[in-house]
Amino acid sequence: MRPDRMEKRLSFQIAPDFKNVDRVRTALGRFLSENYRGPEAASRTDEISLAATEAMNNAVEHSGADQVEIEVFADEAMVVFQIITKGKQFDPTMPVSMPVLGDGKELQEGGFGLAIIRELVDDLKYRYVEGKNIMTFFKKIKDKNG
After folding, report:
1. Res 2: pLDDT
2. One-character DSSP codes across the chain
3. Is residue 58 assigned to a domain?
4. What are the pLDDT digits (tens) for 9-22?
5. Most buried in the list 28, 38, 64, 109, measured by CB within 10 Å?
6. Cα separation of 58 and 61, whole Å?
């Protein structure tokens, strides 16, 4: 599937800070709720919104980029979310170690973003092109049969 051939599109270029993540998350939520209705769609759009938020948070915390590009493509059945950062290569599709329990056997905060993203999306792709990390994930909103 080529996202650039999908019907609807949302695009942002933001400075990497959490206020901008909140702004994009709000706009994404509005975009998704305007385009997809019904309980099944709501559950799946919540999942893409959470995965997108995790990806943006990771870009803010870890990329070192001075700008984050975000593209959202949608048609009646699928949403594609793409995040682009310029900087050192980091492939989110590679295995990563999960956070370990602390001394008190409690879970530490942080370190679960990629696991959350992988769990919530249907497919995750990564490319490193001309010094840019391009992470793209796909979420089916409804089956082609209806």
Report:
1. 64
2. --GGGSSEEEEEEE-SSHHHHHHHHHHHHHHHHHH--SHHHHHHHHHHHHHHHHHHHHHHHH---S-EEEEEEE-SSEEEEEEEEESS---TTS--PPPPB-TTSPBPSS--HHHHHHHH-SEEEEEEETTEEEEEEEEE-S-TT-
3. yes
4. 899 999 999 999 99
5. 28
6. 5
We report the CATH number of the domain holding residue 49 as: 3.30.565.10
Name the nearest CA neighbour of 61 among 118, 109, 98.
109
β-pair partners for 10: 72
What total of structural domains would you count in the chain?
1
**What are the structure tokens assigned to 66, written together?**
């001075």
Task: Tell me, yes or no, whether 146 lies in a domain.
Answer: no
Question: Does the model's pTM come out above 0.70?
Answer: yes
Tokens matching residue 145:
């049969």
- In total, the chain counts a number of residues equal to 146
For the chain, what is the mean pLDDT?
84
For 140, the token pair is: 């089916």
- Domain range holding 105? 3-140
Q: Is residue 145 part of a domain?
A: no
Whether 71 is in a domain gets the answer yes
